[in-house]
Amino acid sequence: MLYRSGVWLARHPWPIIGLWVMILAPALFLAPRVQDRLLSGLGEAPTEARAAANLLEEELGASPTGMAFVFRHSELTIDDPEYRAALEAAIAPLRELNDINRVDSLFSTGFREMASADGHTTYVNVLINSDPQKALDDFPRLKNSVQSDILEVKATGGLAIFADVNESSEDDLRRAEIFTFPLVLIALFFVFRSFVAASIPLIMGGIAVTITLAGIYLLSLGVGMSVFVLNVSTFLGLGAAIDYSLVLVGRFREERRDHDIEESVGRTMATAGRAIVISAITSIIGLSGLLFFDYMMLRSLGIGGVMVIGVSVAVALTLLPALMGLVGHRLGSGQSGIGGELMWGRLANWVMHHSWSVFIIVGVGLIVLGAPILRVNLGTPWADILPPSAESRQGWDLVADEIGPGELAPLLVVLTPTRGEFESGDTSAVARLADQIGNDPRVSRTVSVANLLPERALESATELSAMAATLGLGPELVELVGQFSTRSIMLITVYSKFGPATDETEDLVDWLRELPEPAGLEIVVGGGTADLKDATDRMYDLFPWVILYVMVSVYLALMFMFRSVLLPLKAVLMNTMSLFAAYGALVLIFQDGWLDFILGNTATGFTQSTVPILIFAVAFGLSIDYEVFLLSRVKEYWDETGDNRYAVQKGMEHTGRIVTSAALILVLVAGSFATADIVVVKALGIGTAIAIGLDASVVRAFFVPAIMRLLGNANWWAPKWLTRLSIPGLRA
Questions:
Q1: Fewer beta carbons within 10 Å, N or C terminal of the chain?
Q2: Selection from 81-90, 225-234, 258-267, 318-327 with the highest mean pLDDT
Q3: Quick check: is 447 in a domain?
Q4: Are residues 247 and 321 in the same domain?
Q5: Same domain for 10 and 137?
Q6: From CA 162, how far away is CA 297, in angstroms rounded?
Q7: Residue 282's domain is classified under what CATH number?
Q8: How confident is the model at residue 215, as a pLDDT?
Q9: 685 φ/ψ sector (left φ>0, alpha ψ -120 to 50, else beta)
Q10: Could you list the residue range(s) of the whole structural domain that residue 82 is in?
Q11: How many CB atoms lie within 10 A of CB 183?
């Protein structure tokens, strides 16, 4: 079927070209609009921290969206009337906006702890009455409404950080494109020695990415999609286009030595086209593992990845054969790639002659490189996901350094009565619990009704509006207490002495959740650290099952495609070795800071929790491509001769040049994201580059031939039912 489709497309190129033009035209209109529809953050899932947030929103009207403004003056302090007047004037416009729920400063709350010890720095909390997407759209207006000629002002907190992440992500993508496209074009020219042939992978990648982004825009109208889908889809689209185009054009040039254009296209599709179908299936399986996670970021990256691989393989199997039929005479003939056939054949023979030595040395080397993953410390960065030049990062660091590392990310202890409403004695029990929490050495302070009310008023805390006059409480205090309690909920805000992403604060979350509940009361712990800790725990509870799903699915797919039991097992295990080594390198680079002097990172002491999951999904499918391309060619010679050693040698000879070229260019594309400002994007690019580089060089050139020599004819054993199986269009 692939052979016949290739011949037909070579004979009739214009209908398929016209069809793709019709698809591309509206995509060019929709794709540029996708940026405005994408979301920051990880997303939500049903966890304890989310339950706490929902209770606070339902019972206390606490806004799900917020930010902070940090104010500083080098000479004036909060005790100076000029400082207070300047701050009040700066935030006054906020109080006039309809979508602002509350604006809290130390002057309105009376909390001196909201300022630095020297009084030069303070912050104002702003809670917003709108969903995160609308708040992001309105952020420039909110930010610009707070100005001061006297005080230095910086916007930070959740909303500001998300806005800067969006902006940095777009800048990272633009910078990567500026560096990548010219370098890739030059590299492709050296591979093909033809600008026509070199431009094809970039054309294919541009079409696939544009159509995918248009599809993501349409999906975003009904489903939340992460801002990082821009980076991942662009990288995967270029990567798949380079892989597929190099393999197809390289095989076409090889076939042109003995056949006319139409026959060459047909034979290319029957061989290299089949390998591309297999590799696309494995990539889609790897990326589909992200769909099992119930977090918007991971799920949307899986959707975007599956879409771009699907579009890429469709372009490669339809538009590219049509173009080869149209301009095949300008693509030349002969081998493409780096190195010569004799070099790769000699390398394969040398490796097979020293198979045991190569197997042991390479295996031990990969294990040693991967060993640091055994001490990985998973965490989720906050403002430090951004470069130091970002305003929200500067504001966050200013508060952390001068007021307290946990000041902008308190933990939230939510108490509800099992009887539906609080009874006499319950508020005193809450006050005692707040005291117990406040005495913990990891806690800097707590805020609850116990801080706000005199002891004689605690038992009447749920009837304050009616008893305010009797108790001698002013309306401002009554309003403030209403932010911490109602008849059915009470809140204890807990400020850690440590940053939100530290082990100490995570341990504090665990301790709070293990506290004995006062009689008749239930405790739910939330807040930023609890939310991200719950997310990490939830993701890594599922991650082993996702790994199992991907590995078993890829194994079964390769088993049916290659009609072998051991070959696909070897392919999956070798790919796992590459990933294991890449994970170890990531720990050394981003957790230990080995390359800080080059990459400009500040080692945080942990590995960003989503990075290993994303690298597994992205790199597993892409790096196994090279194994598929090699084994597909090896199988051709095995089917012809039945000689395992000869098949491995000839397979290496005919794929070594093109596969190495594809891998090096893909490493170049992935490595371009090392220039990213956002740590997650930088780590994903570098980790993927390491995994692909190791798999296409050390593993494919040394490990695979050595193991195939050691296994011998057992590589090709399969039960009779498997050898008889026929897959339409993909007959082995």
A1: N
A2: 81-90
A3: yes
A4: yes
A5: no
A6: 13
A7: 1.20.1640.10
A8: 93
A9: alpha
A10: 62-162
A11: 15
